Amino acid sequence: MPAKDSKLDPVWDDLDRTLGQLFMMGFDGTTVTPQIKTLIEKHHLGSILLTAKNLRSAEDTTRLVYELQKIAHDAGHPVPLAIGVDQENGGVNSLYDEIYIRQYPSAMGMAATGSTELVFEVAKATAEEIASCGINWIFGPCLDVLTNARNQPLGVRTTGDDPQEVSAYGVAFMKGYKEAGLATLGKHFPSYGNLEFLGSALDVPIITESLEQLSLSALVPFKNAIAQGLDSVMVGGCAMSSAGLNVMHACLSDQVVDDLLRRDLKFNGVVVSECLEMEALSHNIGVGGGTVMAVNAGCDIVLLCRSFTVQQEAIAGLKLGIENAMISRDRIQQSLRRVLTMKSKCTSWEKALNPPGIEHLANLQPTHTSLSTKAYNNSITVVRDKSRLLPLTNILEPEEELLLLTPLVKPLAASAASRALSDTVTSGSPEPAVWERSASVMSGERVFRELGRSLARQRNGRVLHTSYTANGVRPVHENLISRASAVVILTADANRNLYQHGFTKHVSMICNMQYTTGGEKREKPLIVVSVSSPYDFAMDPSIPTYICTYDFTETALNSLVKVLYGDINPAGNLPGTISQSQKLHQSRHHWLVENFNEERDANALDALIKTVTEGSSPNQRSELSSASSNSFLLNHAEVTEAHFVVRNSSTQALYGFCSTYFFKTTGTGAIGALFVDPARRKLSIGHSLHNRAIRTLLQHEGIKRFQIGTRLPSIFLGIPTGHSAERKRLRSWFSNMGWNTALSRPVCTMVARNLGTWSPPEGMAKSLASAGAEFDLVYGWEYAGPVLDHIKTNNRQGLAEVYKLALQDSSAAGIIRAKRAEDGAIVGTVVLYFAQSRMSEFVPAMKDLDEPTGGISSPVISPAVGEYSTLMQGLILLGMRQIKGQGATACVLDYMDGDGNFDGLSAMGFDVLHNFEEVSCDAATWTMVPPS
After folding, report:
1. Is the pTM of this model over 0.85?
2. Which residue of 290, 521, 645, 865 has the smallest Cβ count within 10 Å?
3. 3-state secondary structure of 413
């Protein structure tokens, strides 16, 4: 194929023919449509993306791909079409066939095997199967580093949060694909591993890391894969916003494509844009203009997934850009050379018109079936089994019953019975839904029913099986739990499907409160299985037996059954930093850490707080700005507190301070604050304070977990994240101390000002009236029983203490309740408090506003409630009215989940005041970071 400066074949003098090679397009339908035929014949389209909506079976795919190539050949295309698919395995497969295409674990499932050799084998097998159907380009590997594990939708499509591990597995995937003759594509440059989502479809997800930060983590796998021969890279459509970089869409930016990818990472392969049909891009820029911008930025192939009208608009836009001299012929020829070079590696007319087909797939089937089983068996991970419940044969007598509880989830790609399901669902339907048309997916309900049957086949005793929904724990569940001798709960991305988290915690609480017929307390065996993201309960020690399968295909769940019954020993390990504590290796000072003495140290602590506050950068709000030495002293009967200082015994000055609290109700030991004189950082003062704090917390009987951040007092709800550079510094520091910061939970404090002129949003009253709930405000301990029973559905640290503080302070604090209209049951609560209350002493934001202020704290909505947002707004609305009625001009919302949808609260007048990341870990598995 043509070298950089060699003369191109005269056939490429035809501009239309050349431009066709710069596009990749998709279409709807499982057969060749007039639209795609026109694009190939008239517009010389060079690449096609096939998705699950196009592919019914291996045989149909082979036929479809051949027809597309034959049309291109007969139309005089000098080179074959590049035909690509996403075939990531796990829950993302475009091509599925229960007979000829094997199922393999997701990328993270493969990483859990710990074997790059096995990854290579699986990648090669995957590529061999789709290559047999004539496909020559695989959209993989996924090279994203999952730097924010909890909230990212990529989930198990990545291999983890460690850049070096992602690199090693990514290169192994790539080499396996190339071994089978496919072109490879790394995605999603520069990274989809830590996107911030703003909400609206017209809002583009944003990367906030600087280029320097990206180069230390997210770009490492791309750099290594490029060095090993990566054929192409997909550049995402996300925005980028950091110092010196403000990009609306990465794939349209020459800073990202030409400068970062080509110049800095030295990539000279094919760059593919994100699909330009994305709503935000087409709405803000337009597809025609976007196409010109993508090519000028350095993209070689512009992707347009399905709309024929939009695809024509893109072609016309590119031609107009050339006519107007916005794009040079040399620039077009650069891309053409790269595309032709890639095609020469993965296809030819001989290969394109003679795919191996079904016969070859049949020959591959036996070895690939064995490989699939091996991969799944090696990926299943037992994260914890503290009570030694595995195998189940050790704890269940033959006649005892086992209960399986499974969620209702969206359909998942790939299942051995999918065709039967599809035939059943679609019979008599003139136009089935896309997922039904594809014949490549199966509902979770169906695959979980198969799991129940598999469990039943392995034992004499009965297996009870029922599903659960956002309606929470119902009487039927309670009856079955009481009846069964052991319980298995499945969750699938519980961090994003919060009803699953609440349901599981509720069932765990029920199992912990079981009694024998003689009245003796006996904890009922409970096993929680995450069948997608491993982060659901990875760091929750209250779930003592926790297993991860990384996807819920039938093959994965068959391996799970083998693990549950002891037929195989689970060999998988959680990938990345989640299962390891990073160590510090530099030399350390050993500072004398003393107990805080209020009489001796109070003034010095106030001086240290002032020094730290003044040391904050001008554009960074300090959480300590209104704190004092008294802010850290709870003197609460159910909280054991211990605070520590590093000080100069000669001058009495404090160099560092750390506060700790042990909450007896939840067994949580929390570091509530840790700060050091800015002039004395990097001297190991913080390290010495941290280790003393952990050692002290470990001595408490009943300690179950550690946490960074407390809601009581709420100076620091976690690691402050308001300033990106400071956030990175603190996350890195705590990570080096042994905390898994990838499993953080965002929390924030919000504020609404100008209450004097405030009024509820229009239509809110009507919305609340339809919620089926009644709201009231109560004061005093006489209301404690039902309220404290209600908040037990949420075991977050400090919750009970906040509510008890409010109930005991009836003159200046109360509880707002939402009660179900039909039976009066409490379904939601918040704490309401005023400036003169004791609660306000522990919320510095109340003083920080420097105006009359009231506060609302710690909302708890029952997991079973469907109208979550409406109830939340109703509780807060009543609180704001009370606060306004007392003459206050501002309202603080303390301790709000930071990953919630803030549209409703914004409409009510609230803005975020402080952002934090609450981090917790299992105390039983804590490893102290020793000084070197």
Report:
1. no
2. 521
3. strand
